[in-house]
Write a structure and sequence with these properties.
It is a single chain. The protein is mostly helical. It has three domains: 5-130, MgtE N-terminal fold (Alpha Horseshoe); 146-247, CBS-domain (Roll), CATH 3.10.580.10; 278-448, Tetracycline Repressor, domain 2. The protein has 24 helices and six strands. The chain has helices at residues 5-8, 11-14, 17-20, 23-31, 35-44, 47-54, 59-68, 71-79, 83-92, 95-102, 109-116, 119-128, 136-139, 153-163, 188-193, 200-203, 217-226, 247-264, 278-305, 307-312, 315-343, 352-382, 385-415, 420-448; strands spanning 146-148, 172-176, 182-187, 211-212, 231-235, 241-246. A three-stranded mixed sheet has the order 1-2-3. A three-stranded mixed sheet has the order 4-5-6. Helix 21 (315-343) runs antiparallel to helix 24. The protein is globular.
Length: 449
């Protein structure tokens, strides 16, 4: 029984069969899943149950499942895989899927596989290594259907019948001239509906541009979001077609970019196994905690500068976390907005100054609104309106600085080639803590002592 759209939402509930189902029930359920669904289940269950799933997956399907798994879980599954089954599955795979799998195989398994596959597939893999990582050249598939502009639609139709099939997600054929240079694309709908005697050059679309093999993965994501395309050709510097990138590949890339941004903001790896051993998880997170500890010591050092002030006015110690906390939240909102804008190519040198002015204005406005609220609450609470007034002023200062930092930090990191999602949060927290404590305690020192 194939999993329906409704039941696919409850794959983890169905996975309860792994604990109390019979071997036959488990096998039947696993065989009903698509490779991507199987990968989702494997990533979501405990390591003890993964073996039950893996051992009943047909050898011909295991390679496809490995392509869908994140690196950590895929590596653990490889250790359970019979080498003979893996080699057999790779031989049955298309060239592009095989290349994708080879990129994640560890040594010495990779060397064994390269020795066993044909020369043609080995050359395809070696060519893929020539392109920089995270570029169109490294991501492209080599299964593009290429036709000449000077032939008739009837010739194209006969050529496709001889081929017997076209690659998945093919909505158009790539058109080239006699020198193999890209000319445009012929939609399959045009091929089916136009007079078969017409030339390809008469009905092809010349407005669909190709992309350079150097284009970054981030720019590719932006391109597919802006244009209603299913695939785009990848070209070399001379305009010759090297391959294509289709929507299926881009969906995987978009998910990877989203996972990377989300996990990086917490200092984690998007390819991490959620059920990895406790010691390994602790090691990964210890580094990030250590970095945060250094920034915390910096904030503590600022507080120490005003030790005498705090000793004389103890209520300051109660109120100062409010300023830092409000600045941290406001800055995080701006940081998230800007990091997303950078990822989508919505933020650049052309508009970053206007964005900075807008966000600082928002920070000032929110600072004024909440400064009034906080000042009133603090004044009633501690019966000291001098302190409550300074608290409000410090909050306005910190929210404005937090908004500015939320724009400037990710933009500067992006220019330096550092991932803003990875380092932006720590730097922002440092700024809001230091500025918040400095503003509140500094004002109290100047005006109350």
């Amino acid at each position: 029984m194939k999993v329906t759209l409704e039941t696919s939402k409850n794959l983890l509930e169905q996975a309860a069969i792994l604990a109390d189902g019979s071997a036959m029930q488990i096998r039947r359920w696993v065989h009903s899943l698509y490779p991507a669904e199987t990968a989702h289940v494997l990533e979501s269950i405990e390591p003890e149950l993964r073996n039950k799933v893996w051992e009943v997956i047909p050898p011909s399907v295991k390679a496809e499942v490995l392509l869908k798994l994140n690196v950590a879980v895929g590596s653990s599954m490889l250790k359970m895989t019979d080498r003979k089954d893996l080699l057999e599955a790779i031989e049955l795979m298309g060239s592009d899927h095989m290349i994708d799998l080879l990129h994640v195989l560890p040594e010495p398994l990779l060397s064994q596989v390269l020795e066993s596959i044909g020369v043609h597939k080995r050359l395809d893999y070696e060519k893929s290594l020539a392109y920089e990582e995270h570029t169109a050249g490294a991501l492209m598939q080599h299964d593009a259907v290429i036709i000449r502009a000077d032939v008739s639609l009837d010739v194209v139709a006969r050529y496709l019948r001889i081929r017997g099939s076209v690659p998945n997600t093919t909505d158009s054929l790539i058109v080239v001239d006699r020198n193999e240079r890209y000319q445009g694309q012929l939609a399959l709908s045009q091929l089916l509906t136009q007079d078969a005697r017409r030339k390809v050059s008469e009905v092809m679309d010349t407005h669909l541009a190709g992309v350079s093999y150097r284009m970054s993965s981030r720019d590719l994501v932006s391109l597919f979001q802006r244009r209603p395309v299913v695939s785009v050709p990848v070209l070399n510097d001379d305009g010759i077609v090297l391959g294509r990138i289709n929507l299926e590949r881009m969906l995987g890339l978009i998910r990877h970019e989203a996972d990377h941004s989300l996990m990086s903001m917490a200092g984690l790896d998007e390819d991490q196994d959620i059920f990895e051993p406790v010691v390994d998880s602790a090691k990964r997170r210890a580094v990030w905690l250590g970095i945060n500890l250094l920034t915390a010591f910096l904030a503590a050092a600022v507080i120490d500068l005003f030790e005498a002030t705090i000793q004389q006015i103890v209520v300051l110690a109660v109120l100062m976390p409010i300023v830092a906390s409000m600045g941290g939240i406001a800055g995080s909102q701006t940081l998230t907005l800007v990091v997303r804008g950078l990822a989508l190519r919505q933020v650049s040198e052309l508009n970053s100054r206007k964005l900075l002015n807008k966000e600082v204005s928002v920070g000032l406005m929110n600072g004024l609104i909440w400064a009034v609220v906080v000042s009133l609450v603090a004044g009633v609470w501690f019966h000291n309106f001098d302190i409550s007034l300074l608290l409000g002023v410090a909050m306005i200062i910190n929210l404005a600085c937090a908004a500015a930092a939320g724009v400037l930090i990710p933009v500067a990191l992006d220019k330096m080639g550092v991932d803003p999602a990875l380092a932006g949060g720590v730097l922002l927290t440092t700024v809001t803590d230091v500025v918040g404590f400095m503003a509140f305690l500094g004002l109290a020192t100047v005006f109350l002592l």
